[in-house]
Amino acid sequence: MNIKTTLKSSVAAAALFAIAAPVAPGVNAADDTLSSGNKNSLKISGFVAKALWYADDGYSDSAFITDGGESQSRTRWIAKGTLNENVTAGAMIEMDIPISNPQDGMTLGMGAGGTESATDAGWGVRHQFVWVNHKRMGKISLGNTNTASNGRSETTFSGVNMNDASSNRTFGQGILFIDTTRGAAAPSISGVTVGAAFTNLDGRSRDDVLRYDTPRFAGLALATSYIAGGDWDVAADYRAKFGGFQVRVQGQYNNNAATSATTGGTASVSGAALHDSGVNATFAYGQRELIGPGSARRTGGDGKFWYFNVGYRAKVFGVGGTNFSFNWNRTTDLVAGNSDGDAVGFTIVQLFDPIGANMALSYRNYSYDTDTNTFEDVDVIALQTIFNF
Fold this sequence. Notes:
This protein has helices spanning 3-20, 194-197; strands at 33-35, 41-56, 61-67, 74-82, 87-96, 124-134, 138-146, 176-179, 188-193, 206-213, 220-227, 231-242, 245-255, 263-275, 279-290, 304-317, 320-332, 339-352, 357-370, 378-388. By secondary structure, it is mostly beta strands. It has one domain (3-32, 46-72, 100-120, 152-204, 238-388). The strands form two sheets. A 16-stranded antiparallel beta barrel has the order 2-4-5-6-7-10-11-12-13-14-15-16-17-18-19-20. It has a two-stranded antiparallel ribbon with strand order 8-9.
């Protein structure tokens, strides 16, 4: 696949979408609230994500049509009821739908032929939980949902988070780095994927939990959860406005020593600021703690990451904001001791508010090395569309 052809196709698709958007119909005023057998409300929502992207590992390249990167197609049902003026309660079910072509299953083959088509035919549970919230006492959640630590490494005002996270590995997660230690003339396919080489050491994601969130006081909210199997986590979220700046800082500690023989836990912090002009910036840092036998310890360290983002939220078209982001993730000692990975690139997102859609164009350069081996960089350019319903 010729990269020039792919780039031309991507630009043409983006141009057609941008031209069509200004004449899109107005906001759909249909009521998405359904009535049930009692006074509770039920809302159905979700989105479909599709992408066209191109990857080059230095020795082979290909174009792929897949589901989304950070955001994969899903559907959800949200129920809510009011007990009295202080207490509300509800439940939520959210499912990953079957995917015709998951992006992390795509590979390159260095002349041997990679994987350009795969199927994930199973439904996956993302959320299935009940909750009750008291205005002054806080919220309790029970079931499969976000742990208290989930998302705390991903604070941002960039407006591109539907396409990016601080791990910076949106597309090409299944691509293997090419080992060039013996020279460019004698390459070999390594066992290290882009997805394995980069992380944001975020919290526990979703699990079966008993979670408690405090009310927000003076901008600060706390959360903790007991996780099935004996693990636990804690988190904090601070939000404030200072003059023309919005500021948000989150942090978490996730202890998983009860269910892991090698990892004691992870800790991370992330913060972001947004000026009224649209200029914004993000910083994140996280570190992992390895435990167990000496072989589990890393000579270079247990694993850590840094993330930086500088962005601008603009109003270029009348259909919605246009958001720009320049980002860098550096991950060290994750796959092996004394290993270093850098994911550097940019993302541009165009929002189409009248139809609940967005389109993102992104580029990433992934580089990875250890103290004993060198690897060829992987380059990925992607065009992703998300349509919400």
